[in-house]
């Protein structure tokens, strides 16, 4: 059985389930066959008193989507960080062999530092989405 939870259409369908629905109904009335055998009219499904269920479902869906997106971003940034580490090591080796100057090493280390900062910012945002998910699922905060 396939896992369809990460498919883009699943988020659209889930979000559509959280909005009010309006449709047209055509049907035959039970017990009345002579005067008005058919029934035609609009049907509106609008829950007025759902006790915040829809809002909570939207919050949970948003937190899950945000976490999934940030997890992908963190993985990509980790790959970028690894590439920057290899570039910095190569620049140091080339400097030690006398092929390049100190400027190339400093530039590679600056790029490595920037990649590390970006990774830390993404990890912090990922933790923030986990906290939002925890709160959306009914967890509280300690004051």
Please give a structural write-up.
The chain is mainly alpha-helical and 143 residues long. The chain has one domain: Outer membrane efflux proteins (OEP) (Up-down Bundle), CATH 1.20.1600. It is built from three helices and two strands; from the N terminus they run αββαα. Helix 2 runs antiparallel to helix 3.
Distance between the termini: 44 Å
CATH class: Mainly Alpha
Shape: elongated
CATH topology: Outer membrane efflux proteins (OEP)
Number of separate domains: 1
The CATH architecture term is Up-down Bundle
Beta-strand content estimate: 5-15%
| Number of helical elements | 3
* Low-pLDDT sequence parts: none
What's the mean pLDDT score?
81
Q: What's the Cα radius of gyration?
A: 28 Å
The biggest beta sheet is recorded as:
2 strands, antiparallel
Describe how the helices and strands are arranged.
Layout: H1 8-17, E1 21-28, E2 38-45, H2 53-96, H3 102-136
Antiparallel strand pairs: 1-2
In short:
This protein is mainly α.
List keywords for this structure.
143 residues; mainly alpha; Outer membrane efflux proteins (OEP); two-stranded antiparallel ribbon; 2 strands; 11% strand
């Amino acid at each position: 059985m396939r896992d369809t939870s990460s498919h883009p259409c699943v988020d659209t369908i889930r979000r559509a389930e959280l909005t009010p629905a309006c449709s047209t109904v055509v049907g035959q009335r039970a017990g009345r066959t002579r005067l008005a055998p058919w029934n035609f009219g609009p049907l509106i499904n609008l829950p007025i008193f759902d006790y915040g269920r829809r809002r909570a479902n939207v919050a949970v869906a948003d937190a899950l989507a945000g976490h999934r997106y940030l997890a992908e971003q963190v993985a990509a940034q980790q790959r970028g960080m690894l590439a920057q580490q290899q570039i910095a090591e190569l620049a140091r080796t080339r400097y030690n062999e006398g092929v390049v100057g100190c400027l190339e090493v400093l530039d590679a280390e600056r790029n490595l530092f920037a990649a590390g900062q970006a990774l830390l910012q993404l990890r912090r945002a990922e933790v923030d989405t986990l906290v939002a998910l925890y709160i959306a699922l009914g967890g509280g905060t300690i004051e």
